[in-house]
Amino acid sequence: MKNPNLQILVYGKNISSAKVSLKPYAGVKLLKTQKVENPNYVFIDLDITKAAKAGNLQFIFNNGTESSTVNYELRLRTAKPQAVSQADVVYLLMPDRFANGDESNDKYDDMFDTQADRKSPFLRHGGDLQGIIDHLDYFNELGVTALWLTPIIENNTHQTNEGGTMRSSYHGYHFTDHYQIDRRFGGNNAYQKLINEAHKKGIKIIQDAVYNHVGEDAWLVKDLPAKSWLHNWDKYTNTSYKDQPLFDVNGSKFDKKVTEEGWFTSFLPDLNQKDPLLANYLIQHALWTIEYFNIDAWRIDTYIYNDMEFMNRCNKAILDEHPNMLLFGESAVNTVISQSYFTKNNLNIPFKCNLPSSCDFQVQGAINTALKENFGWNEGVNRLYTTLSQDLVYQNPEKLVPFVENHDTDRYFSVIGEDFNKYKLGLTWLYTVRGVPQMYYGTEFLMKNFKNPTDAEVRKDFPGGFKGDTENKFLAFGRNAQENEAFEFNKKLLTYRKTSEALTKGKFMQFTPFDGGIYVYFRYTDKQTVMVVSNTKNTESTVPTANFAEILKGAKSAKNIMTGDTINDISSIKVPAMTALILELK
User: Which GO terms describe its molecular function (predicted)?
Assistant: First the structure.
C-alpha cells in the first residue's frame, strides 16, 4: 500500500506488561510498541516495505515467566473497486427490511438483543444479505447499478429506550465490533458472497461508514483503552445538531465544541478522533474494509459531527489508495453554502474539506418543495433552478448524490400528495440533472408514509421479501396497475440513462423558468444532447424554443425517449400539464 505504516491493536488481560518481539519476517520491521492507560492494550507499530509478501507474522509476548505467540495475517491485495459516477444510479436499502433469505440467522440467544418480530416496527424483522443476493436480478431489471446498504457491521447491543419505546438497532448504526459483519445479516462470508455475486451482475456496492460514534455495548467502550478515546463532559452534553458553528466567522468556540463533541444520543458514545491511536484505528479499518470486501464506494454517516481534520486525513488515506473512489457524506444541512463547506469547494476560507461528494440534501429539498408550491419568483420550480444555479461553490457538482427520499425522511410519494404526475416529474428531474442519483427502496412502486409517529413508518418491509407476505412487489403480478406503471416508468428511464452519454457524462445547462412554471435544461456532450422540458403548470403549454438556440445548434427534430415518438419540428413543443418531456435531439 502507499502508506507502509501499520499499527496493530492487541487486546488481552494485562498484556501491556509483556515484552513484544517479532519473529523475523522479510520486509517487515517492528518500529515500536505503545502502552495506554488500560493495561489490557498494546499498540504495535510496523513498517511494511515493498519487499514484504503475503503470509503470517508471529509476535511473541513474554512477561518473564511465560510467553505466547500471536499470529497476524498479511493478505494479498486483490480488491479492484469499480468507480461509482454519474453513469450509475444508487439504490438505498435497509437489509433488515428488504428480504429474508436465511431464517436461521434471524436471532441469537447469546446476543444482547434476542428478539426478532415483524409485528413490531421497532424490532428486527430478519432481513439479511442472502435476501439481497436472492434479488440481484430485480436490480438488473429495474436498471439500478449500485447498492447502498445501511450499515451491516455488528450491532451486538441492548435495545435502547427512544421516546418511551424499546427499540432494536435494526438500522445498523450502533457499531460494536468494526471487524465483524453482524451474524444476523449472515456475517463476513455472506457479505463477501453478496459483493462477489453483485459484481458478476454489474452491480456495485457502497459501504455505509460511521466514524462519529459507536454503540454503548461496543467492546472497546466497555473496556476503554483510554479516557481520551471519548468526548468527556462534566455532565451529559448532546450535540446541538447545528452545522453553522463549524464555519461561522462570527460564531463561538463553545458552540463549535457542542456541535462537534456533544453526543449524537446518550446511548452512542462519541469518539474523540483527535486521539492519534483512535484515529489510526478508524482509518485502518476503513482501508481494511475496502480491501477485504472489495468495496466500490464509501458513504459517511453523520459527517458534520466528526473532527474535520481527522476526516481530511481519513479521506486522503482512502483516496491515496483508490483515487477514483466516490466518498460522499451525510451533511443534512439547510443551505447550499453549508453543504459545500463539507465537500471540496471553491470557497476562499481558512479550512478546506477534501471530501469529494455529499448526499445532496439541497436538491432533495428543492425537488420536493418545487412540487408542493405554486410557481412564484422564488417558489415552485424556481426553488430547483435557484439551487442548481449555486453549483459554482462546488469543485465537482457532478459527484454530488441527489435524491428525493431516504431512510430518514418522509416518503416522497406522500410528501407530494400521492400525485402520480408529480411523482414522475420529480423523478425525471432526479435522474436527469447533474450528479449520481439515489433512489430508496420502494420508490419504484410508490411506497408511502410519513415519519409520524416515528421513522419506522418510512422503513416498512419490502412486500414479498419475507415468508408469509401476501403481496410480492418484486413481480409484476404482485403490483397493482399504478404500481406497475410507476415501476415501468423507472425501468424505462433508467435503462435509457445507462446508454445515454449526455446523461451519464454530459455537462449541465439550465434556463431561467418562465411563463408561470416552464423549466428547461440540457445535458450534453459533443456527441449527444438531451433536452428536458418541464411544465409545472396545471394546464398544457406550448413551449417556444428560440431562446435555447445556443445549445440547440440548429437541431430540427427530437425523439421522446419515454414514448419513442419523433417530434419533427421542435421550434415549439407541446407539453402536457405537470409533465416533463425527455427529448434526445437529432
Answer: hydrolase activity, acting on glycosyl bonds
User: How far apart are the C-alpha atoms of 499 and 518, rounded to whole Å?
Assistant: 27
Q: Which of 260, 291, 330, 360 is catalytic?
A: 330
Residue 45, domain member (yes or no): yes
Domain boundary among the residues 35, 54, 74 is at: 74
Q: Give the end of a domain, one of 53, 74, 95.
A: 74
CATH (domain of 38)? 2.60.40.10
Query: Is 45 an active-site residue?
Result: no
Cell (9 digits) for 546: 428560440
Bridge partners of residue 69, in order along the sequence: 60
Contacts of 432 (CB under 8 A, 6+ apart): 497, 503, 521, 523, 530, 532, 582
In a domain, 563, yes or no: yes
Summarised one tens digit per residue, pLDDT across range 296-312 is 999 999 999 999 999 99
Q: How sure is the predictor about 421, in pLDDT bands with cuts at 50, 70 and 90? A: very high
CATH number at residue 577: 2.60.40.1180
Quote the domain boundaries for residue 19.
Answer: 5-74
Alpha carbon of residue 577 to chain centroid: 34
Mean pLDDT over all residues of the chain? 97
Residue type, 397: P
Look at the block and give the residue holding cell 460511521. Answer: 210
Per-residue confidence (pLDDT) for residue 469, from 0 to 100: 97
Edge-to-edge order in the sheet of strand 19-22 = 19-22, 55-62, 67-74
N- to C-terminal Cα distance for the chain? 48
All three cell numbers of 108: 441469537
39 in a structural domain: yes
CA distances from 577 to 92, 512, 515 (A): 31, 19, 13
Q: Is 103 a catalytic residue?
A: no
Q: How many domains does the chain have?
A: 2
Q: What is the pTM of this model?
A: 0.97
Backbone angles phi, psi at 439, to 5 degrees: -110, 165
* 478 part of a folded domain: no
